[in-house]
Amino acid sequence: MAQGENPVRDLEHALVARARELVREHLAKAAAERERLLAECGQRLRLREEREMLAAKAEAERLYRQRVQAAEIRLQGELDRLRWTLMHEVLDRARGRLEALVADEDAYLPLLRGLIASGAALIGTDPVVAELNARDHARLAARWPAFARESTTAQTIELAPTAVEATGGAVLRDRDNTVRVDNTFEGRLDRMQEAVQRAILERMFAEVPEMGTLFHG
Fold first, then answer.
1. Which residues are within 8 A (CB) of 105 and not within 5 positions of it... i.e. 6 or more apart?
2. In sequence order, what are the beta bridge partners of 181?
3. pLDDT (average), residues 142-171
4. Which range of residues forms the domain containing residue 145?
5. Do 44 and 3 belong together in one domain?
6. 185 and 120 share a domain?
């Protein structure tokens, strides 16, 4: 009987040993799976943190660009207002000097002759009609033929009976009034406004490096 029980006991021992081995295997697999899951979760967490950091960085850069653009728009608006103010101040001073020039016949009349001659040359017809402001018309009407000959010998310059609104200079046209050249001070200033504005900016901001970079690149 004792001999018959040994195989059973041995089988039980073997089963218990196998069960223990299986338990150890399962525990080892569970531990490995746990480590794998922890590593995977950690990797996912790092990826999520990286994505969140990249998203936060992109959002911060977007907000920064928006603020920079808003600041640039405000600065450009201030510069536009400053430029507008400065331009009109300079033009107002220029008009004041032109009015003083017109009052000085010795300095003004040679200039008027030059404006008439250049305008007439652009018209190209003969005769050419000159329109002056009321002051010039009054002081030149009586001696117009001689004044016109001194202005140009290439064309006949007729004096229009009506005056134009201008500080000085002249409007030149053909008799049919189909071609006109505005050589009044105001007309020339209008045509030169962009150049005048650029000259004002360069003169006003030439000594400020930031402004030079802003306007000239």
1. 139
2. 172
3. 93
4. 104-194
5. yes
6. yes
Q: Which two tokens stand for residue 132?
A: 């002056």
Residue 205 tokens, joined: 């901001």
The pLDDT value given to residue 216: 38
Tokens 């360069």, residue?
202
Q: Do 105 and 161 meet the contact criterion of CB atoms below 8 Å apart?
A: no
Residue 47 within a domain: yes
Q: What is the DSSP letter of 157?
A: E
Q: Which amino acid is at 142?
A: A
> For residues 183 and 115, is the Cβ–Cβ distance under 8 A?
yes
C-alpha closest to that of 152 among 108, 130, 120:
120
Segment 69-115, tens digit of pLDDT: 888 888 888 877 877 787 778 778 877 888 888 889 999 999 999 99
Instruction: Please give the structure tokens belonging to residue 51.
Output: 């994505």
Stretch 137-156: mean pLDDT: 92
